[in-house]
Write a structure and sequence with these properties.
The chain contains 10 helices and 8 strands. The protein is α/β, with parallel strands linked by helices. It has one domain: Arginase, Chain A, CATH 3.40.800. It has an 8-stranded parallel β-sheet with strand order 2-1-3-8-7-4-5-6, with helices on both faces. The longest helix has 20 residues. The protein is globular, with a radius of gyration of 18 Å.
């Protein structure tokens, strides 16, 4: 029987704003304040970070700190592969969303012959490459790397050779080549995109269930449709970026808050629908930034509530 394993990755090098490295601890504090012993119930491991490299002189301006992000993602990949191979269910608590590349790569390395579906619950598409990114922040690039998609049709940056070398390494973490097909990625809540991302989404027919569509058509209808779309996928990974939630309703405790998102219970409904397919092998929570929270520690408290509901749903299926 599978058992839960918590993977704590306090890296925030992929973000444009510092502070998500403290997100894991903020979630733990939320549990303590609720008198909940969740974090004493499961074994855990910490991924070694390189957050100190934030002070280094930056040469890779179109993929900031890419060497360090590559190494952290590689460590996370190895941890995920090891834990899945040892019959664990990894629940990953990360700083910024660049971590998802490490997680996806680790899943694919553990199950190289299985087709992977990715549920991306986020306000952002995270499908930029160093060639298209307006910011150079790698938390906007994990899906592009996992898909092995440079989107050169929308190239705006002349990338230096060092960046190209590391980007090629990023795309080949775990096993070589794409980890997931475009048709096997489903977005929920994406609403803040740039033209290169919009092109990639349209060109590859990536499905995005917006907040308004789900409320209008109904959650059961949309979720059943999405589950059917991933019918050919044997395994599923769920990536939950807290900025998928409405920053005005919840809080601004995340690096890139966006209005008009989901509420907590809508997020839980989406996640549980996929957990109940018995295909989910890994769940990840990212981008809690307590330094930006305008309501105390509310974003971390909400993330913990979602984490607890998800964990219980997972345990019921193990």
């Amino acid at each position: 029987m599978k058992t839960i394993k918590l993977i704590k990755n306090r890296s925030d090098l992929g973000a444009g704003t510092r502070g998500s490295d403290m997100g894991v601890d903020a979630i733990e504090i939320a549990a303590i304040n609720k008198n909940d012993d969740y974090f004493n119930c499961y074994p855990f491991e910490d991924i070694e970070t390189e957050n100190e490299t934030i002070y280094d002189k930056e040469n890779n301006s179109f993929a900031k700190r890419i060497g360090s992000v590559y190494r952290v993602c590689t460590r996370l990949c190895n941890s995920i592969t090891k834990n899945l191979t040892n019959n664990k269910f990894p629940i990953v608590l990360s700083g910024d969303h660049s971590s998802a590349l490490g997680t996806i790569s680790g899943i694919k390395a553990a199950y190289p012959n299985k087709r992977l579906g990715v549920i991306w619950i986020d306000a952002h598409a995270d499908i930029h490459s160093p060639y298209t990114s307006p910011s150079g922040n790698i938390h906007g690039m994990p899906l592009a790397a996992a898909l092995n998609d440079d989107n050169l049709e929308y190239k705006i940056n002349n990338v230096i050779p060092e960046t190209e070398v590391f980007w090629d390494k990023m795309k080949n973490i775990g096993i070589k080549g794409p980890k997931v097909l475009h048709e096997d990625v489903i977005y929920f809540g994406v609403r803040d995109t740039e033209a290169p991302e919009e092109f990639a989404i349209k060109q590859n027919n990536i499905r995005n269930y917006t907040v308004s569509e789900m409320r209008y058509r109904g959650y059961d209808v949309c979720l059943n449709e999405a589950i059917e779309k991933l019918d050919n996928c044997e395994i599923i990974y769920i990536s939950f970026d807290v900025d998928s939630m409405d920053c005005d309703l919840i809080s601004k405790g995340t690096g890139t808050p966006v209005s008009k998102g989901f509420d907590q219970h809508e997020i839980e409904t989406i996640i549980k629908a996929f957990v109940n397919t018995d295909k989910v092998v890994c769940f990840e929570v990212v981008e809690v930034n307590p330094t930006l929270d305008n309501k105390g520690n509310v974003m971390a408290e909400t993330a913990f509530d979602v984490l607890k509901v998800t964990t219980n749903a997972i345990i019921n299926r193990l």
